[in-house]
Design goal:
CATH superfamily of the largest domain: Penicillin V Acylase, Chain A
Distance between the termini: 68 Å
Number of strands: 24
Number of domains: 2
Strand content: 35-45%
Shape: globular
Structural class: alpha+beta
CATH topology of the largest domain: Penicillin V Acylase, Chain A
CATH class of the largest domain: Alpha Beta
């Protein structure tokens, strides 16, 4: 008993100041199909699934996440990715000088890639500092899969060697952590348990759900907030929430993409029969504020419920001519702080002119986004309205000495 108490206290000390993200993802394939199972573990959150049809040469896809973040997704070509926290944390650097488009590289996976090799090539092209505390599992409809992360030597790609592959929260380049108790592996040996169960049963939705039920988190530190099983050959996805495997929602990626850009809150989705899904569909226009209300934001741009906590407020309007969405941010003095344009609010995709202003009304920043990425000439001004600097971008990458495309 004393040993258990000491171990519990050690865990409390080690997790103090850390958010524990304990997820489980695995892929397996047989002669007919490839399935991916995933538990997303965190704390209670507003989980959503977004559907984004293909356009302008980009693949249609679904994104999964919570509280506005993106954690996983798969596309119409049968490519899947899921991001997991990876421990121990390491220090990474861009020693090779790769272009850095920050977190937007994760969106490019589903928009532009069809195979695991495509994703590997993407990360060989672009730098992402998120690998300091993350790893990404990718799989495609052929059955190929890999876990991508970094170690002290640089980018690492661990490919599937058997007919299955498992990823949890120890950094895959540190296999000594696979079997044992660690503060970042609350729930106990999920990696080993999932691997053993995969070997013992068929590649089926039912068996995958049983593995996910056995590896779901239900402890003080972390809970499974949603579970998915995706068939990469058919585009079928089965979803449950909060570790409740008695209610499963079935979704067809291809059928949802035909209905245009929209999303569902997973709590609505699992509680509604398919025929009533129009009643719970969330679209861009649902986020408009117009002149009737405003969104209050704190100094870090997080929504708040009272003006006492607010540093800014926001309105969102629709431009009927361009069919885009205009986001207007204000200081509490009613002075305009920023104006930006979006092609989508659901999820949020910034696309168009971008402006920031000082409290005195002078322009602070002026630039342009093309589908989330900085593009063209960006100008930065002093409080007096004088030009401080000009930077040129192409596809999110600084091009200091290049001409504007």
């Amino acid at each position: 008993m004393r040993k258990h108490i000491l171990y519990f206290c050690l865990i409390l000390v080690c997790t103090a100041g850390n958010r524990l993200y304990s997820c489980t993802v695995f892929v397996a394939t047989d002669s007919t199909h490839t399935l991916v199972g995933s538990n997303e573990d965190w704390k209670p959150a507003d989980s959503q699934v977004f559907f984004i049809p293909g356009e302008k040469g980009m693949y249609g896809h679904a994104l999964l996440g919570y509280n506005g973040s993106v954690q996983a997704g798969f596309n119409e070509k049968g490519l899947f990715w899921d991001g997991l926290r990876a421990y121990p944390k390491i220090r990474v650097n861009n020693s090779t000088g790769k272009p850095d488009i920050r977190g937007w590289v994760l969106h490019k996976i589903l928009e532009e890639c069809a195979t695991v090799d495509d994703v590997v090539n993407l990360f060989e092209t672009y730098y992402w500092d998120g690998f300091s505390l993350s790893q990404i599992m990718v799989a495609d409809s052929s059955g190929a899969s890999a876990i991508i992360t970094m170690d002290k030597a640089g980018l690492t790609v661990t490919r599937k060697r058997n007919w299955y592959q498992v990823c949890t929260n120890f950094r895959i380049t540190e296999p000594r952590h696979a079997d044992g108790a660690h503060w970042f592996d609350i729930g106990g040996r999920r990696y080993v348990k999932a691997g053993n169960m995969l070997q013992a049963g068929p590649v089926s939705q039912e068996h995958f759900l049983s593995i996910l039920a056995d590896t779901a988190q239900k402890n003080f530190f972390s809970r499974t907030i949603y579970t998915t099983v995706c068939n990469l050959n058919t585009g079928e996805m089965h979803i449950s929430i909060n570790g409740d495997f008695s209610r499963i929602a079935a979704v067809s990626l291809h059928e949802e993409l035909k209905q245009g850009r929209h999303s569902y809150y997973l709590s609505d989705l699992v509680g509604t029969v398919p025929g009533n899904r129009d009643n719970i569909k969330v679209t861009d226009d649902d986020f408009l504020t117009g002149k009737q209300s405003v969104i209050l934001l704190d100094k870090d741009w997080n929504p708040v419920d009272t003006e006492q906590k607010a540093a800014y407020y926001r309105t969102i309007e629709k431009d009927s001519l361009s069919n885009s969405y205009i986001m207007l941010d204000y200081f509490l003095t009613d002075t305009l702080q920023g104006r930006s344009y979006y092609m989508s609010l659901n999820p949020r995709i910034i696309d168009g002119p971008y402006y920031e202003y000082y409290p005195n009304g002078k322009t602070r920043v002026q630039g342009l986004f093309r589908r989330r990425l900085r593009h063209g000439e960006w100008t930065f001004f002093s409080r007096k309205g004088e030009t401080d600097s000009t930077v040129r971008y192409a596809g999110g990458v600084k091009r200091e000495n290049s001409s504007i495309q």
